[in-house]
Design a protein that fits this description.
Family: Belongs to the thioredoxin family.
Pfam families: Thioredoxin (PF00085), Zn_ribbon_Thio2 (PF21352)
Number of domains: 1
CATH architecture: 3-Layer(aba) Sandwich
Strand content: 15-25%
Distance between the termini: 21 Å
Number of helices: 4
CATH superfamily: Glutaredoxin
Shape: globular
Radius of gyration: 15 Å
Organism: Janthinobacterium rivuli
CATH topology: Glutaredoxin
Number of strands: 7
Protein name: Thioredoxin
Largest sheet: 5 strands, mixed
Keywords: Disulfide bond, Electron transport, Metal-binding, Redox-active center, Transport
Helix content: 25-40%
CATH class: Alpha Beta
Length: 150
């Protein structure tokens, strides 16, 4: 992983996957990607599949919150609107993503996902916390913020 200058962060673009380096203070200024010029934060969970997922968790300097889910899962569908609400609050301090385990079974297997929905929090490519089961927006936000302090 490349190093950042003091006070700067690597942020992976949710649109083109370019790695952007920007001062940490600019996170709250609605930064845009240097490559595609789109917003780096949209207030919506980013749907990621295998290759894109790994780049986001490995290259991002902010915590990455992941919802491992499947379209046939009732609790996953009931948690989805809460996850969207949480994304609006957690960004830009977090990258909020979703992984469809049906479309990317390799990721479900690689990260030993045994029940869905499962939230996982990654820092610098390493899983630091996991929460199985559907929870509401306030619980998602509180859990993510608490675990990001580890």
């Amino acid at each position: 992983m490349t190093s950042t200058t003091p006070g700067s962060l690597h942020i992976v673009c949710p649109h083109c996957d370019a790695v952007n380096r920007l001062p940490a203070a600019r996170l709250i200024e609605q930064p845009t990607c240097g490559k595609c010029q789109k917003d780096l934060f949209t207030g919506q969970p980013v749907d990621l599949a295998s290759a894109r997922f790994l780049k986001h968790i490995e290259r991002s300097d902010i915590p990455v919150l992941v919802d491992f889910w499947a379209p046939w899962c009732g609790p996953c569908r009931s948690m989805a609107p809460f996850y969207v609400q949480a994304a609006k609050t957690l960004e830009p301090a977090f990258r909020v993503v979703k992984v469809n385990t049906e479309a990317s079974p390799d990721l479900g297997s690689r990260f030993n996902i045994r029940s869905i929905p499962t939230l996982a929090l990654f820092r610098k490519g390493v899983e630091v916390a996991r929460q199985p089961g559907a929870i509401d927006a306030n619980a998602i936000i509180a859990w993510a913020r608490d675990k990001a302090r580890l």
